Amino acid sequence: MRPPDDPDGFIRANTRLLPVPYAPEIRLHLAEEATDLWQKTEEELEAIGLPPPFWAFAWAGGQALARYLLDDPALAAGRRVVDFASGSGLVAIAAARAGAARVLASDLDPFAVRAIRINAEANGVGDRIEAVRTDLIGTEPEADLVLVADAFYERDLAAAVTGWLADLRARGRTVLIGDPGRTYLPRERLECVASYSVPVSRSLEDAEIKRSHVWRLRP
User: Fold this and answer.
1) Is the residue at 118 inside a domain?
2) Are 91 and 62 in contact (CB under 8 A)?
3) Which CATH number is 146's domain given?
4) 0.85 exceeded by the pTM?
């Protein structure tokens, strides 16, 4: 395995450019289940200086939200969009493909930031997506539409994200969330606007098909 001092080379060496199962219009550099990248434990990844490679998988909530944007491009067309915890960049790319004026894709993992840029270029939208390694929680980004997928898997993070999104919603932003119903999703504050049966990896989820939803944050 190529050492991670060359992020772009590492990403390309350990992934394949593949169509996203539920949004095949988009291709991403994805890790196959049998690759060394997925077989390594968190301890092994830490030893080589690599966080868990969440950017190398098309998660269920992200696939649902991407499909929703592609099927109804008016949601993003001409708007300033933020994709929080973007991972592979799937949702950001869908927003750009839907005609967003500009997309800010944020993630704390430096490898994710590189993957977003590589994937955006592979889909012909590299000039409309800005990938940044920034913690946006507590900030007020210049955006009309805020997108979040698969971010409600840990209690403290979910609480912080929920509070931040509620503040942005109160300031007039539209907030859409893609999530299959993970433990800390704030369902009482959400309205479900679409549901999909999304193909996923059984090695990472509890099923091969995951019922996933797009939620709108209520005022």
Assistant:
1) yes
2) yes
3) 3.40.50.150
4) yes
